Amino acid sequence: MAGVAVLVGAVSLTSSASTLAPEESWLDATRAVDALAAPAPPSAPTPSRFATVSRSAQRSEGDQAGAAEATRAGVGTAVDQQATRRSRALAALGRQARSYARELASERWALPLTRYRITGTFGETSYLWSTVHTGLDFAGPTGTDIHAVASGKVIEAGWAGSYGYRTIVELEDGTELWYCHQSSIAVGVGDVVARGQVIGAVGSTGNVTGPHLHLEVRPAGGDPVDPAVALAEHEAAP
Q1: Contact (Cβ atoms closer than 8 angstroms) between residue 122 and residue 134
Q2: Cβ-contact 153, 191 below 8 angstroms
Q3: 206-220 burial, b for 16+ CB within 10 Å, e for fewer?
Q4: Which residues, including other chains, have CB under 8 Å from residue 10's CB and lie 6 or more apart?
Q5: Closest residue by Cα to residue 148 from 181, 108, 117, 119
Q6: pLDDT tens across the length of the chain (238 residues)
Q7: In whole angstroms, how large is the CA radius of gyration of the chain?
Q8: What Cα–Cα distance (Å) separates residue 98 from each residue in 84, 91, 94, 105?
Q9: What's the CATH number of domain 117-233, 3.40.30.10, 2.70.70.10, 3.30.1490.20, 2.50.20.20?
Q10: Cα separations (Å) of 82 from 14, 75, 79, 91, 158?
Q11: What pTM does this model have?
Q12: In this structure, are residues 158 and 166 in contact, taking their beta carbons and an 8 Å threshold?
């Protein structure tokens, strides 16, 4: 009805206009009615204030976040494991170093006197000895402390003829150390002595020309070897 009213009004207006021809007035009125009757174009949807996210998208984002977290956790675990392995390896190296240090310390010897003068060396010949000199002589005042060259067990302590008062200490490897011409003996058979321990005193007992310590080194209790060489090999060169 509104379209008819508009059409009647448009016809009335065009009829009263004396300047327009009848055909033009009718066309103009028709166009006006068509324009009013045409449906309005669809309007664009108004965007919502809140964006809508699909469940699949939410799951995808959640999966990605979980994967990232798992990756970070895995990297952290790997770093921790590597640090643990490194700590264990360093601890093992430390134990090996300490063990080696103890081994070296056990093999290190000490000089029998702190103050001395060498008066006879290994292999010398003289009217003083029946054959050759079988040890190393450390001259010092009578009563000077004699220290154990190395740790071991006393297997003999007492009078030994031309050697005077003698103490024999057997080392762990079977080597025998002979301490001769002592004025006194401070240990007994069966005693275990430590390197550096006082075991007697310098004297002039037996076949001597003056107070001194005659030291012999006999591997496995056999023939003597040069004490100066043996001491040097065990970091105690005289």
Answers
A1: yes
A2: yes
A3: bebeebbbbbbbbee
A4: 28, 29, 32, 33
A5: 108
A6: 444 343 344 334 334 444 444 445 545 545 654 555 555 555 555 555 544 556 665 666 667 777 777 777 777 788 888 888 888 888 887 787 776 555 556 679 999 999 999 999 999 988 776 788 999 999 999 999 999 999 999 999 999 999 999 999 999 999 999 999 999 999 999 999 999 999 999 999 999 999 999 999 999 999 999 999 999 999 999 9
A7: 58
A8: 21, 11, 6, 10
A9: 2.70.70.10
A10: 98, 11, 5, 14, 62
A11: 0.60
A12: yes
* Euclidean distance between CA atoms 136 and 139, whole angstroms: 10
**Pair 37, 6: CB distance under 8 Å:** no
User: What residue spans of the chain are helical by DSSP H?
Assistant: 2-16, 22-37, 55-107, 227-233
Here the tokens at position 170 are 């057997």
